[in-house]
Amino acid sequence: MAAMPRPAEAPLPLVRILATGGTIAGAQIPGSKRGYQAGVFSIESLVEAVPQLQSLARLEVESVAKIGSQDMDETVWRKLAARTAAALERPEVAGVVVTHGTDTMEETGYFLNLVVKSDKPVVLVGAMRPATAISPDGPMNLYNAVAVAAHREAGSRGVVVVANDEIHFAREVSKTNTTQVGTFRSTSRGLAGLVHSGRVHFYAKPVRRHTAASTFTLGPDPFPQVDIIYAYAGMGAELIDAAVQAGARGLVIAGMGDGNLGARALAAAAAARQAGVTVVRSSRTGGGFVERNGEIDDDRHGFIVADELNPQKSRILLTLAIAQGRAPEQIQELFYTY
Asked: Is position 23 annotated as part of the catalytic site?
């Protein structure tokens, strides 16, 4: 009796890697014990340094930018969003990995979470140590990021950040330490999952709207000016007044405690709102909710509260909302929805 033919193995999923630079592609400065330059190495060289990636997925690579993420701006965001969307529209692409510096990774991740219209996985990954360090964290982070992007259950979870064996929802994650590899934390709703040596363990899916269900688009170019004002004891009106005079159409207040402001700063924020500037109260604390009509009468002043979003993510949501021409009462509902 003839042997039955063995079924052909299914091809590995195709993952496209979009590179923007960052510490993961950084190199130490010759003669320096500490300093380094971000974005030195090409994405091709980063992939070649981790040959084990070939067991996870077929890879395509593209360089979108070569910057430290402190220089991330609207121009790069627009290009990155467009290249991400173009990759995900291809039926053969299973997911996208974005290599990125850690300084503004949470902002880029949340921006993509709002404007990319796809259920396919988008994974941001970076490193806290440059590629030439004694013990770089980039190679394992990249390996784990590709494993997540290629995983059959990774879709419909929105944009995620992979670092230090953890998977974070882009909406929830924040950088919390200047130098340690365990810098990323998701304080309000916890981790999206864990990934250890390429083995992926997902937890619950996100509860807020994102990606394919989002109503946001890139909108007009350029975006409206939205500034963040950091509150402090004894704060006056000067910073708020200066932002308004400089043309800000929106202000996010990184308030004390539950988004609070002292009397003089509160009066300036109220005057800004009367002048047509949209004002959002967030918090500088790094965790918790900003409650509406707590110590400040938001209804009377016409303010919006950030709910769980930190100031930097509040700025992104407010920017996109103003760009869509949303009224303040609609914008408040967006902060409860996204």
From this structure: yes
